[in-house]
Amino acid sequence: MKNENRHKRRNRYMKRTPIRGLLAAALLATTLWSGTPAFASDIGEEIRIDGNQPAVSKAGFDISGEYAVWIVEGEKTITVYDLEEETEVKIGDKQSDKTNPRVDGQYVVWIDSRHGGSDVYLYDIVKKKEIRLTDGTATPVEVEISDSNVVWSDLRDGKSDIYLYSIKTGEVTRVSNSGKASHPTVSSGYVAWEDKRSGNADIYYYEIAKKQEKAATTNRSDQTNPSLYLDKIVYENDKSGDVDIYVYSIGSGKEKQLTDDSEDQILPALYRDSYVFVSDGDLRLGDIDESGSDEIESRIYEKLPPRIYGDYVLFAKQDQDKILRIKLYNLDDEEPVGIGGMSGEPSQPDGDDRYVVYISETKNAAHVILHDLETKTNTIVSKSGSEPIRPLVSNRYVVWYDEDEEALISYDIKRGQRKQVTDEDADPSDSLYELFGNKLLWVDQGRRYDLYVTDLSSGDTEEITSLRDEPLTIDIYDNFVLWVTDEGSDRGSIYLYDLDEEDETEIRRDVQLQGASLGENFVVWSEHTTKTNSYDLYYYDIDRGRTDLVIRWTERDQVDPQASRRMVFFADNRISVDKKDYYYELYDIEDGSFSPYYWSDDAEIEQPRLSGNRLVWIDTRDSDDPAVYTMAFARPNDDDDDDNGGDVPGDGEYKEYNFQKVFDDGTLADVLGKSEFDKVFFVFRAGTNEEVAISISDIFEDSSEFIKWMNSTRFDDIVIRVYN
Fold first, then answer.
1. Mean pLDDT across the chain, nearest whole number?
2. pLDDT of residue 688
3. Residue 36: what pLDDT?
4. How many alpha carbons fall within 13 Å on the CB side of residue 124?
5. What are the angstrom distances between the C-alpha of 612 and each of 6, 214, 420, 479?
C-alpha cells in the first residue's frame, strides 16, 4: 500500500582541455541540481491521467484494415494495435531506432537502424515472422505498403529513387530513374511519387503490371506529397499561389481541383472517395466527387500527416505539456474514440511517488497500465491475453493478481521484466496482498491462511504467521507487518510484526472495527465506541508503544482509514445531514491537524488509495468519461534505492545521445532529466573493446575519472547512454 521511491537525473559532456573537464563536472552538477524533479509536481495539484491517446514519438503512425501502428515515445519497439480485439503487441527488437511504421492487411513495414545504417523490415502479423527486405546497400528514408507491395525512396549512390518490393515474389524493382524521386505511395496496381527531374516537383506513377513509368502532372508549379488509392492520386498543388488539393485519375488521365481557399491545404491522404487534409492547422474531410469539406479536429500536429482507412482517421495532436498523442476519429459515429490497450475504462488505481498503476478494461481485454508521472507516459506491463486485477506499485515494482494463472505477478520497472511470484503449489489470495518497496506481503489460502513476505529483488520468501481464519485486512510498511484476525460480528484483533526483531505484538484485542492500516511508525484503525455510538479513529505509536485517539464525534463515524507516510485518509460523516452520506478527509498524524491539501469540490472520488506521497482515485465527475486522478500531499521521498541491481542496468533498453549535439542545441538538461542517476552513463570509446561507461551516480561519488576522460576525449566523440 505504501511506497518509497528515489528520483535521480542525468548527464552530458564537452570538449578537450583540462579546464573543460572541470567545467563539464560543474555543468553536470548545476544541471542536475538546479531544479526539482519533473514528477515532483506541485503538492495539492490534481493530475488527470489519460490513457485514451497514447504518447507517441515523431517516427510516424498508420492505420489500415484491422490494425493501427505507432511507436511509443521513449520506446524502440513498434506497437501493433488490433482495432477489433482492442489488444496490442510490440514487434521489432528493443535496441535499434525505427521510423516510418506502416501497416496494410497482415503486414507491417518500417525503416530500421539495427545494422548500423538503415534497412526496410517487414513483419507478418499472422505468422509472427520478421524479414529484412534490404541488404545494407540501400539507404531508405520513406516506406509505404499496400496489398503485397512495399515501396521506399532510396538515397543510395547519392541519388533518390523509388524501389518496389513484391511480398509475393520477393522481387525488388527500381521504378524510377530520375535520381530526384521522393515521397512514394503505392496501391495494388500502381506506385506514385514526387519527382524533381524537371527542376520543379511533379507527380509520376508506375504501372506495376506493365512495368511502365508515366507522368501524371508536369505543371510549372510544384505538385507534392501524393497519396494513392487504386488509380486515384491526391496531392498538393501550388499553381494558384497558395497550396490546394488536387486529384488525378490514372484511368481517365484527368486532373481535378478539390480545394480552393486562401489558406494552404496540405498533407492529403486518400481512401476510396474520401480524403483528409490539413488547412491552417485544422484536420478536414472531403469527398473527391463533391465540393466542400468538414472540420474533424482543430490544431493538430502538422509535422505528421494524418492517415485514413475505412471509417477511421488517425492523427496526432500535442497536449498542454507538448506531449505528442495520437487520436482516432470514427467517421461513421462522427466522434473521437479511444485507441490502444490503455483506452478502456480505468479501475483499481494505486500510486507511488513517481508512478500510478491501474486496470484499463475494454470489452475484450484488461491491462495493467503503468503511468510515469515524470515522463507523463503510459506503459502496458501485463501480458497480452492475461486477466489482471488489483495492481499495486511501490518504488521499482508493480504487483497484481492474474485470474487466469491464479498467481501473483510482479513487474520490475527498472529492468522491464515480468515474472510470476507465487508457484503452482501456492494458492494466493486475490485481494489480500500489499507492497512496500521490494517487500510483498501476501496470504496463501490453503488449509490455513499463511502470511508470507517475499523479497522481489532476491526471490526469498519468509513465513510470518499462520492463521486459522482469513484475516480481515493485512498491511506492510517499512519493516513492519500488520494483520487483523477475524473475531466474528465485525470484531477483530490487531497484530503488529517487526521483521527485523521477528517479534509479534497484539496492539488491540477483540474490538469492533472498520479498517486498519500501517503508516510511518504508526498503526491507525477505526474502532466502535459504545458510549458515543460512533466509529472513531485511533492510532498506535510504534516507537512509544502507546495508543491514542485521533478523532471522535458523538454518533458520527470515521471509517476505512488508509495510511501512508504520516497521513491518514478516511471516510467521514461528521458534517453530513444524513449519516449515510460520507465524504473524505486527509489528516496529518504528526501535526495533529487536517491536511491543507484537498481535491477539488467537483471531484467524484471512487476506489481511493493512499500510497507513497499521493492519493489516487477513479473520478466520475465526467460521468461519460471516468478517469484516474492523483494528488500529491508531500514531496517525493529521496531515500536511496537499495536494490539497484549493479552499476550497469544489464541488457535493458537504452537510447544514446551525442554529447556535443545536446550541449550545442540546449537540450542537455532535458536529456539529463530522462532517467535515474544510475541509469544514465557517459560512454567513452563507445562500440570498441576499450569502451568506458561512467554513471552519474559514480561521478558524484568520485568525479576524477570522469574529468580525466572528458579532458582526453572530443565532445563529439562522447555518447550519453540512457537506460529505460
1. 88
2. 64
3. 38
4. 11
5. 11, 65, 24, 15
